[in-house]
UniProtKB/TrEMBL annotation:
<dbReference type="InterPro" id="IPR011042">
    <property type="entry name" value="6-blade_b-propeller_TolB-like"/>
</dbReference>
<dbReference type="GO" id="GO:0020037">
    <property type="term" value="F:heme binding"/>
</dbReference>
<keyword id="KW-0479">Metal-binding</keyword>
<dbReference type="InterPro" id="IPR036909">
    <property type="entry name" value="Cyt_c-like_dom_sf"/>
</dbReference>
<protein>
    <recommendedName>
        <fullName>Cytochrome c domain-containing protein</fullName>
    </recommendedName>
</protein>
<feature type="domain" description="Cytochrome c">
    <location>
        <begin position="37"/>
        <end position="111"/>
    </location>
</feature>
<dbReference type="InterPro" id="IPR012938">
    <property type="entry name" value="Glc/Sorbosone_DH"/>
</dbReference>
<dbReference type="InterPro" id="IPR011041">
    <property type="entry name" value="Quinoprot_gluc/sorb_DH_b-prop"/>
</dbReference>
<keyword id="KW-0408">Iron</keyword>
<dbReference type="Pfam" id="PF13442">
    <property type="entry name" value="Cytochrome_CBB3"/>
</dbReference>
<dbReference type="GO" id="GO:0046872">
    <property type="term" value="F:metal ion binding"/>
</dbReference>
<dbReference type="GO" id="GO:0009055">
    <property type="term" value="F:electron transfer activity"/>
</dbReference>
<keyword id="KW-0349">Heme</keyword>
<dbReference type="InterPro" id="IPR009056">
    <property type="entry name" value="Cyt_c-like_dom"/>
</dbReference>
<dbReference type="Pfam" id="PF07995">
    <property type="entry name" value="GSDH"/>
</dbReference>
<feature type="region of interest" description="Disordered">
    <location>
        <begin position="274"/>
        <end position="308"/>
    </location>
</feature>
Length: 477
């Protein structure tokens, strides 16, 4: 999408209003007839004059193409003279030449930060070096168009979901399709999604998978559902839908959906808000979209779940105010449930999920709309749980895993998130629950859809394209 420097909206056009606001914020302003010269730094000027239209975080604003150019000279011209036909006002009477240049340089800094994600280095081998160690990619499975989720079997095989609607078992680098998968709405972001084994799989052979389920009476509608089935030599049997998020919706995006069992037999299910932020994520009464859910292994609702509906009945809801959660993992060191989710343009997040809490969408956000307009002027608010980390620009996180064991000692304890948008694996180092540093791994490997720690102690990543595959990361001495 092309961008104008500013869009119509909440800018300050009246001199007396500008002076009043600046004085209230502790600034001064010089009134020279019809010209007001703002005495403030570029960040303050952006916050006062630009954020009303383009969002609080400048980095989100700059994350797009530029219709009128993005050099320092281009930006200064746009600020000074405006683009009236595009709804961009002129600020020549508001800023001095020096302040115009400083504001343009401030915006240009954000543009340069955005370009740090446009990696110039393309993979030339299967060896990837990081700051602290080197790994080699070993292909485990190929020829799976969009590998969405992985689950590790006791016999060292891997179950892999393909978003188009197929389920495979991968063993010794060979894949075999497993029959018995239900019909899925393989449109947009929908299809066959995540997969998990029952904690007692070795005895009961039960697996769980989430998918975009068509409405039985209206094929225009779909929702996120979870099916339980028994895995046998002939495929799946005893299929049973144990969860379906209501209401069904006509959109074909923001389904979620990750599946995680805790150590008590509870299954966590992430569900996106299906693109309807006005009605779904903040509604906790008979609305299951834009939430994290906790259910028992048979689909029943735990009696100690934290959120009740208006009638006082316990619901499956565990958290709410979530946009599109695409990563979910238990922290093996603390037992806490961690999540990553897609924001809009900017504002992807990593969160620690606390029972019954509100995670803000769309009341708070670090992002802006895709058309450049603001969603909310708040990044934090009372009663809202702030993220552990937010990304600007949006990286499109998907999949989540904590590094355990001894094969990756420099990374141990860190949390991994795939990046769909910028095609790399994100490594977030932790000090307790605080994210202290990030590193970009496997640059330009492809759209990383999922990442898991295997029972053999190796990291596995599912990559969509340009060369769809499941890879194992082998440390190189």
């Amino acid at each position: 999408m092309k961008s104008y420097l500013f869009l119509p909206g909440a800018f300050l056009a009246v001199v007396t209003t500008v002076c009043s606001i600046k004085q209230n914020k502790g600034y001064t302003a010089t009134d020279t007839g019809s010209t007001t010269t703002a005495i403030a730094g570029p960040a303050e000027n952006y916050a006062t004059y630009c954020a009303g239209c383009h969002g609080e975080k400048m980095n989100a604003f700059v994350d797009r193409d530029w219709k009128h150019g993005s050099t320092l000279k281009d930006l200064m011209k746009s600020i000074k003279t405006g683009w009236p036909d595009d709804g961009m006002p002129a600020f020549a009477k508001t800023f001095s030449d020096k302040e115009t240049e400083e504001l343009a340089e401030y915006i240009l800094t954000g543009i340069k930060e955005r370009k740090e994600y446009d990696f110039n280095d393309r993979p030339t081998s299967d060896i990837f070096k990081s700051e602290s160690m080197t790994v080699k990619l070993e292909p485990v499975a190929t020829g799976i168009d969009v590998p969405w989720g992985m689950a590790f079997l006791p016999d060292r095989g891997i179950l892999v979901t393909e978003r188009g609607g197929k389920l495979y078992k991968v063993f010794n680098k060979q894949k075999q399709e497993i029959k018995g998968v239900p019909a899925v709405v393989a449109e947009g972001q929908g299809g066959l999604l995540d997969i998990a084994l029952h904690p007692d799989f070795a005895n009961n052979q039960l697996i769980y998978f989430s998918y975009s389920k068509p409405h039985p009476d209206n094929k225009r509608l779909a929702t996120t559902a979870v099916m339980r089935a028994k895995l046998g030599r002939g495929g799946l049997s005893e299929q049973q839908i144990i969860f379906e998020a209501l209401p069904y919706a006509p959109t074909r995006h923001h389904y979620g959906s990750r599946l995680v069992f805790d150590g008590k037999g509870h299954l966590f299910v992430s569900v996106g808000e299906r693109g309807n932020e006005k009605e779904n994520p903040q509604n906790t009464n008979n609305n299951q979209l834009g939430k994290i859910h906790r259910i028992n292994d048979d689909g029943s609702i735990p009696a100690d779940n934290p959120i009740k509906d208006k009638s006082g009945k316990v619901t499956s809801l565990y958290t709410y105010g979530n946009r599109n959660p695409q990563g979910l993992a238990l922290n093996p060191f603390t037992g806490e449930l961690w999540e990553n989710e897609h924001g809009p343009r900017g504002g992807d997040e990593i969160n620690i999920m606390q029972p019954g809490k509100n995670y803000g969408w769309p009341l708070t956000s670090y992002g802006i709309n895709y058309d450049g307009t603001t969603i909310t002027d708040k990044t934090t608010a009372q009663g809202i749980i702030d993220p552990q980390l937010y990304w600007i620009p949006s990286i499109g996180p998907s999949g989540m895993a904590f590094v355990t064991g001894h094969k990756y000692k420099p990374w141990k304890g860190a949390v991994l998130s795939g990046s769909l948008r910028f095609q790399y694996l994100n490594l977030s180092y932790l000090d307790g629950n605080k994210i202290t540093k990030e590193e970009k791994l496997l640059k330009n490997i492809g759209r990383v859809r999922d990442v898991r720690m295997g029972p053999d102690g190796y990291i596995y990543v599912a990559v969509e394209k340009p060369a769809a595959a499941i890879y194992k990361l082998i440390p190189v001495e």
